[in-house]
């Protein structure tokens, strides 16, 4: 029983896959709980060095499963508790020193935007489309959208999506800074795996700490960020991997000057 999310871990790479394609991967109540569990499982596994977030079917994620909310007798308290569970997973991934790349195709709507932006690097297929639609059904942003969306594209553009019934194409999303790359649909899987492999083949821990520093920095004072940077680079410098890479860099630089 997957409860809508598959998890595979192989040679340091965790692949988290939304797997409710018949519902456009919208999160229902069991899927929300599963997301939280997967986030904690992945980020607590010391063998994992990178994460791919992807989705089965024609769409990445249509946000919360509004049909399930409307037909199961759910109350506002139930919806809040479900959002809290999803938020826990988003926060767990976002704050972990573990780089994540998202592979996005088709529709990304509502809370799907927040789930997508839990990733540090987003690659979209040319058929991807991005829309809010919260207010269309009388609901308000959740799943980190009110924070992660303006952090990615700026407050004014975030409000354009939230206050108008506007849908962005993949090209527009790239122009706005919502995604990092747009590729042909047939190349999406290959490109995302290339990115994850680059992290795993390189200074994996350093990439992870870079994501953590950037993510955490927005909610702290400048002095706190500087202190964290200093402590983190010092700890990194003492690792065997960094020592070897720094020595190689120094030797190559010395050779180039001679």
TrEMBL record:
It holds the Pfam family ECH_1. InterPro entries: ClpP/crotonase-like_dom_sf, Enoyl-CoA_hyd/isom_CS, Enoyl-CoA_hydra/iso, Enoyl-CoA_Hydratase/Isomerase. GO terms for biological process: isoprenoid catabolic process. GO terms for molecular function: catalytic activity. Belongs to the enoyl-CoA hydratase/isomerase family. PANTHER family: ENOYL-COA HYDRATASE, POLYKETIDE BIOSYNTHESIS ENOYL-COA HYDRATASE PKSH-RELATED. This is Enoyl-CoA hydratase. It comes from Microbacterium testaceum (Aureobacterium testaceum).
């Amino acid at each position: 029983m997957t409860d809508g999310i598959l998890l595979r871990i192989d040679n340091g790479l965790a692949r988290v896959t939304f797997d409710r394609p018949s519902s456009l991967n919208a999160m229902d109540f069991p899927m929300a709980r599963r997301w939280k569990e997967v986030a904690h499982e992945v980020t607590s596994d010391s063998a994992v060095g990178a994460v791919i977030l992807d989705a089965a079917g024609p769409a990445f994620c249509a946000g919360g499963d509004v049909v399930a909310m409307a037909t199961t007798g759910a109350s506002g308290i139930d919806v809040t508790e479900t959002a809290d569970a999803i938020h826990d997973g988003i926060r767990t991934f976002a704050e972990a020193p573990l780089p994540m790349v998202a592979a996005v195709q088709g529709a990304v709507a509502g809370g799907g935007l927040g789930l997508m932006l839990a990733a540090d690097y987003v690659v979209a297929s040319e058929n991807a489309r991005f829309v809010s639609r919260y207010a269309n059904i009388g609901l308000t942003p959740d799943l980190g959208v009110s924070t992660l969306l303006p952090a990615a594209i700026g407050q004014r553009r975030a409000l354009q999506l939230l206050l108008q019934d506007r849908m962005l194409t993949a090209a527009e999303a790239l122009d706005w800074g919502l995604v990092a790359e747009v590729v042909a649909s047939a190349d999406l899987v290959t490109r995302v795996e290339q990115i994850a492999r680059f992290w795993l083949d390189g200074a994996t821990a350093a990439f992870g700490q870079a994501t953590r520093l950037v993510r955490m920095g927005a909610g702290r004072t400048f002095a706190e960020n500087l202190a964290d940077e200093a402590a983190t680079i010092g700890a990194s410098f003492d690792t065997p991997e960094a020592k070897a890479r720094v020595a190689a860099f120094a030797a190559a630089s010395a050779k180039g000057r001679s």
